[in-house]
Amino acid sequence: MSKLVSVSLITITALYGLLVALAVGICLICGVSILPALIGGIIVLLIQFLISPWLMDLTTKYLYKADFNKEIPDFLKSFIEDVCSKNKIKYPKIGIIDDGSPNCYTYGRTKRDARIILTRGMFELLSEDELKACVGHELGHVAHYDMLVMTVAQLIPIVFYAVYEACINTNDGDSDSKYNGAIAIVAYVLYIISQYIVLWLSRTREYYADSFSIDMTKKPNSLAEALVKVGYGLTSNKEEPANEEDKKTKPKKRDISGVKGLGIFDSNSSKTLIACSSKDGMSTNINKTSIKNAMKWEKWNYWAKWYEFNSTHPLISKRLERISERSKEFNEEPYIVFDLVKTESYLDDFLVEILLKFLPSVGLVATITFLMVWLFGESMIGKYGFAISGIIMMIFELLLFMRRYKKSNFKETNVEELLGEVKVSGVTPIPCTVKGNIIGRGDAGYIFNEDFVIRDETGIIFLDYNQPLWIVNKIFAFFKAKTFIDKETIIKGWYRRSPVPYIEIYSMETDGKTKKVYTYIFKLIGIFLIMALFFIPLFI
Fold first, then answer.
1. Quick one: 319 exposed, middle or buried, by C-beta within 10 A (0-12, 13-18, 19+)?
2. Annotated catalytic residue 397
3. Long-range CB pairs of 2-5, under 8 A, 24+ apart, other chains included
4. Tens of pLDDT along 231-247?
5. H-run or E-run covering 501
6. Spatial distance between the Cα atoms of 162 and 159, rounded to a whole number of angstroms
7. What is the pLDDT of residue 283?
8. What mean pLDDT is reported for the chain?
9. Which residue of the set 130, 138, 397, 421 is catalytic?
10. What is the domain class of 411-526 according to CATH?
11. How far apart are CA 449 and CA 484, in angstroms?
């Protein structure tokens, strides 16, 4: 804990040091104070800090249908009471979201007013020890004052951006306007730097929340097992036995009489991705080879480092290794030791994807430049340059589209096989067909979320349902999405990883009916239409 305090103090001191340096520099150069921007940022953040738990309560209750009056199982209640007692935390409000897509999170201001939200899927699909480990992680955020610390840290990027906006929007007639451009550039650079410092601080505090959970449960491997299910979507269970004799050999479900009142085991029945341990709610060990295969992408694909750099959370593989390092303290074998050998560099694929991803942006800059020359200089170079660069830009866009939407073969596969793929990213997908049961919404319980979570015999994965028009997605989410829950479904689409594994839906077949997503064809038509428009200047 003392190390966490030291790291946080040093980081926040560095952030505020950057702010002071900018303030002093502006005052010395042009005699202008950034105090108004600082005061404005503090006021905005203070208001947000004070009212955000209340707003989150309203959102969680009415948009996610969370119930704050449900009882939780005795084993979990006793665990929370014990942790709160040891760490001087007021017992948090517990909200239950009735959705089979498992998720949990916490919010609030301090130790005195924390809330912890759990979905029905958490109780259905995790063992007691794994559930305690997940809740212990959330209580770690409360015990470490993470909500307060991150609010203080977030103030600095807000102020830097406010300074940037103020300088950019200042009237050119002002006496100090000659300095505004330079100040704006410096403020924006510091804004970017401070954002990444805040992200690093957030990732660091995630490690400490993991450590807190281990200290409270004394079972690091339970947290690791839960993380594999949360982060990778792996599961060890197979289909239920088909005959009565097989059913008799299965272990009995633990006593969850306190949970049944929540509708957690309802017979008619996770930008969130979690998997199950077994259909009987008992913990079983996931095959370590499957875990290592799932880790390969984070270890070997270059995109993983980029995504982590821009994320509030560390890569799951790194967290698993840190947890495994602590296993010996509690007389447990390390949960996982990644000992696979990389047989190729994967750098060539990464460079090709980077090139394809950014070439359209380069073409856009060139096209806009030539357009300005044409409009304001009435130059033939600008006119033909605009047309030709625009056509080339759309060719780049078409190449990127063809890479992102391979359609030759939607091979039949499963979640475990997909997670073992290394050559996959947001740019390069794997066309696939997955059969399983849709267990909940992608954003668990959210009535306006159109995405899903599907479960097959090997694991669980997020499904991205995305029609061309935003309003169409929201209408589908509100009126139709719930009719797909708990239905056996065949999904065709493109498996991507960025870094969360997901499938972008091309079609979904349920009850003999097929529903298609038309984003693919709309994007293709849009590319050709825009390309055709760039040919017009060549003929006028």
1. buried
2. no
3. 4/144, 4/204, 4/205, 4/208
4. 787 765 443 333 334 33
5. strand 501-510
6. 5
7. 43
8. 84
9. 138
10. mainly beta
11. 13
